[in-house]
Design brief:
150 residues, alpha/beta, Tetrahydropterin Synthase, Chain A, 6-stranded mixed sheet, 6 strands
């Protein structure tokens, strides 16, 4: 039996969309909410201390904290070609410079890449949802991203 397990996280971060034609071109912040869902089968081994679990919530929390929260909480996210991005990076400790525009969609894809190989082999990344506001979010689902080879 496959079961999906989800853990929710919150972090604060700022970004700017260089070249954008709306208000988001200015540096501004969000209270991000991140939902990470893994898929797996609960352990049925009587000798396993994780009997009945797909994955220990504490282990999932530790992985997401190490890969995402510690790095991006109270961080400024900018595109490398943004004006004065290198000067800002030199003056402040928590600045991430990307080759891509730091939209919700692109940040979400970056998080997928960070997590997908960090999970234990007994589970797979099923989905991630990143909310910038209470009413605006981006989602990634593994089933939408399966590559079929010839």
């Amino acid at each position: 039996m496959k079961i999906r397990l989800t853990k929710c996280f919150e972090f604060e971060a700022a970004h700017s969309l260089h070249g954008y034609d709306g208000a988001c071109r200015y540096i501004h912040g969000h209270s991000y909410r991140l939902h990470v869902t893994v898929l797996g089968t609960p352990s049925n081994s009587e000798t396993d201390p994780k009997l009945g679990m797909v994955m220990d919530f504490g282990i999932l929390k530790q992985i997401v904290k190490e890969q995402i929260i510690d790095r991006f909480d109270h961080c400024l996210m900018l595109r490398k070609n943004s004006p004065i991005s290198t000067e800002i990076k030199a003056q402040y400790q928590k600045v991430e410079l990307f080759d891509f525009q730091p939209t919700c969609e692109n940040i979400l894809s970056f998080f997928v890449a960070l997590l997908i190989n960090s999970l234990p082999p007994t589970v797979s990344l099923h989905s991630i949802k990143l909310s910038e506001t209470r009413s605006s979010f981006a989602e990634w689902f593994a089933e939408d991203n399966i590559v079929i080879s010839d």
